[in-house]
Amino acid sequence: QYPFDVEAIRDDFPILQRSVGGDPETPGEGDGDDTPLVYLDNAATTHTPEPVVEAMSDYYRGYNSNVHRGIHQLSQEASVAYEEAHDTVAEFIGASGREEIVFTKNTTEAMNLVAYAWGLEELGPGDNVVLTEMEHHASLVTWQQIGKRTGADVRFIEVTEEGTLDMADAAAKIDDDTEMVSVVHVSNTLGTVNPIRELADLAHDHDSLIFADAAQSVPNRPVDVDDLDVDFLAFSGHKTAGPTGIGVLYGREAILDSMQPYLYGGDMIRKVTFEDSTWEDLPWKFEAGTPSIAEGIGLAAAIDYVEEIGVDRIEAHERLLAEYAYDELEALGGVEIYGPAGDERGGLVAFNVDGVHAHDLSSILNDFGVAIRAGDHCTQPLHDKMGVAASVRASFYIYNTVEEVDALVDAVEQARDLFA
Ligand code: PMP
After folding, report:
1. Does the interface ipTM go beyond 0.95?
2. Domain count, the chain
């Protein structure tokens, strides 16, 4: 049984009541009758519950105003809510306070912030940055390009046949010239849960920093920056029941303090003359210009919402669905699933069906109302290594049910038979 009342949760997400225009009677032909939506594309974006939409609309209806600047009441109310949203995030991931929490647009911008503000200053020829072969393009492309600009070598820890990290290779690649280890916590393609703490120990033994890409872990498992012992960590609001346009960079205070700003302008300065400028305290030093105020407030409401359910229970729910989907898809035959076994993964399953292109499969699934992702999931080099151009990915969240996994598996079976 579910670790919490999934039907009650579903009531908070009106979007789950809508239908889509596919027609299971004539799969592959598109436009048919309304078909109930089975939303299994949560690794791309999760839906937003009513309390989050309400928190954002309360802001727009009641106290919409710019932050940090005004002394009028609306601005003060907006500033308090926006600043306190940083405290909510800090507490959620075990950071020491708001000074360690920078709001960005998304995970990608958080990576770029560190790559530009820290990487361009600190890296040079002879240094290396260690990634993994399963990195999302958000970190892979970013560090690859910073490597080209600074002359630093960019290395990749190998992924084994089972879809886990080769830790012997990690120990060989992380050396005394390593300055940064950037690792995805839960792979958005393989579902692998990487041993961040072990990698952090390796990195720190060599005086390197470590950055955890937590875009797929913060949404559905407990994440604590102290337990993981990471120097940086990033995630996105829109994958955690929150709005788009808001992401989080956690950084250790001493490191953020020593870094130059990433963007310059208003709100991030303390004193400006024609000759020079000084910077605001953390985290505002890294939040130039008018920030995403409603979205920051919405993110805090999303965190309150998931904390109310309980991250431990969310993890158990994701495991239940991922394991069930893995077993049922495997039992179909003719399905190749990527990554570790069902009980050792995050809440997603990427796969291919023999003889059916991933895009054709997802288009047929759409006729069954089943929304999944097809493509390389921003892990092109990993797909190259797996020997396929694309895969489909079903990913789960708090509102998904076993019946929805059944709908997925039924649709996959029919699609397979259609192409046989
Ligand atoms: N890293 C991982 C592991 C992801 O799954 C994603 C989103 N697919 C990102 C980074 C990038 O997130 P965003 O698009 O919100 O910047």
Report:
1. yes
2. 2
